[in-house]
Design goal:
α1 packs across α4 and α4 runs parallel beside α6. The chain is an alpha/beta fold. The chain is 40% helix and 7% strand. It is built from 8 helices and 5 strands. The chain has 2 domains: 115 residues, Rossmann fold; 67 residues, DNA polymerase, domain 1 (Orthogonal Bundle). Strands 3-2-1-4-5 form a 5-stranded parallel β-sheet.
């Protein structure tokens, strides 16, 4: 795993579905908030929102017909409920994740956590999993103007680690809707040779 040719390399980790699985908490939180308003969504519908920002979820996927101010209130309420679930029930790392984290740290590979999650959600997850012990930098929703599937969060992580955007591996979940593609991930895809792989 040691870097070769004196070129600094790093691993850019996605969080949900790769290192942890908090999707059940997201589904439960959305359900608690939306069902009293008459909105009913199957878990499969919410799974399609994996890795997206809340604004995109309510606008493009759930298509909630509500004033913007109310949508923002619902988003904040949902995230509060999500953090409560994380605090009350806890989170564990997915199988194999700790092995990779330990080995990469032992081999002096810089690691970054790159997520579309809001900063408060990241703080709740970090507190319950000790993921912060392995990361040299953390990128969350508030850090970039455009979230995934645009490359901006990964490019920011690479910049903070003082590395070129390639060929740093990006570790994405098996069901990720945002694998590197030339159309949106051109700085990280194609001939520059970035690697996308999954623990699953």
């Amino acid at each position: 795993m040691n870097p070769t040719n004196n070129q600094t390399r790093a691993v850019l980790w996605d969080m949900d579905g790769t290192l942890i699985d908090s999707m059940p908490y997201h589904v439960e939180a959305w359900t608690e908030v939306l069902e009293p308003l008459g909105y009913h969504f199957a878990p499969e519908q919410l799974l399609k929102t994996f890795g997206l920002r809340n604004e995109e979820i309510v606008r493009d996927h759930l298509k909630l017909d509500r004033p913007q101010a109310e949508l923002q209130r619902l988003i904040e309420e949902k995230e509060e409920r999500y953090r409560r679930l994380v605090s009350e029930r806890g989170l564990t790392l997915l199988p194999g994740a700790r092995h990779w984290l330990d080995d990469l740290k032992a081999a002096d590979w810089p690691q970054a956590l790159v997520s579309s999650a809001p900063r408060l959600n990241m703080a709740a997850v970090l507190q319950g999993t000790q993921l912060g012990d392995f990361m040299d930098t953390i990128v969350c929703a508030e850090d970039v103007e455009r979230g995934k599937p645009y490359p901006d969060p990964f490019l920011l992580a690479a910049e903070r680690l003082s590395i070129r955007p390639c060929p740093s591996p990006m570790v994405l979940p098996p069901t990720s809707q945002q694998p590197p593609r030339r159309t949106r991930y051109s700085p990280l895809a194609g001939p520059v040779g970035s690697v996308c792989f999954s623990l699953g």
